[in-house]
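Give me the fold.
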Amino acid sequence: MQTTRLHLSASSSDNRISKLVCRAIFVLVMVACTQATKIHGQQLREAFRNIQKAVVIVRTEQKGLAPFPQQGQVSMDGLGSGVLISNDGKVLTAAHLVQSADRTIVEFSGGELVLAHVIGCGVSADVALLQLERTPANYVAAKLGDSDTAEVGDEVFVVGAPYGISRTLTAGHVSGRRTLNRGENSVPLEFLQTDAAINMGNSGSPVFNLKGDVIGIVSNIMSRSGGSEGLAFAATSNTARRLLLDQKTFWTGIEGMLVEGDLAKALNLPQPAGVLVQRVAEGSIAWQSGIEPGNLRATVEGQEIVLGGDIILRVNDIPVENGEENFGIGVLKPGQKLVLTLFRQGHIVKLPIPTSQ
């Protein structure tokens, strides 16, 4: 019995030591995790402090046909986000926000309002470049980073103005990389997928890595509710750079829709497809050239469209087939002229377009 008691006593002592060791390891792990979380929080906080003044609100104004059954035109305001990427006043934002806007105003974190002009649009990637009329003092541009270094699983954060609430930060990860190949002669478009919360007003928001470099520009979300569901996409910074900074680009100001099939036949198009001009932004090259927007709202197979405007058939004798890259307009080679072939009130019209802005 004594031997047994000694054995039990030794076992109890071992158990107590094992428990103490386990508790010590648990405490060390918790301390390490807490410290890592603290360091991560400090890194994110510091990155935000460095870039917050570069993030802006983008407000747009435009006139359009009143919704049925109203008559005439109404003013429509748009709201999104953007980021200052150069000290000479260049701002990246989303193309769908400014493509057909008559007036664009950039609001800085201190409340300063600055008029901006669209100088380039990459509709297919949903990115646009603005030029400010002036750059307020004490604002430092964010760095346009190399999005090729971003990998699935990397932590990122988005700063923008969801629902107009400026300088809102949401954090998440790169949850995917998507590439859209548009054909043999087109540059592939790259998008980052992220689970960071993104809502209305975040269009054009910059996506940052933890170094504070811009690696994406928010394009859209996939949502059944209309709010964030953890599935958002951003054009990569390298795509924006290739489309808007590495080559000559411009802003057409055309909002259009691709018509094909039965609708193209109903409109008596002389070819299988064309781009029906819905509206034209004031001050754009399309507006200066006299391209005519639609003037009659109609519902076709449940979709509301504006009829009566020009239909773009060809761009420099290349037939419109898929409506990509600003509906075939947006990037020209040096010295290349731009001529649009239009279907206007039953007649084919060739219209030269000035490409200088």
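Residues 254-353 form a domain with the Pdz3 Domain fold (CATH 2.30.42.10).
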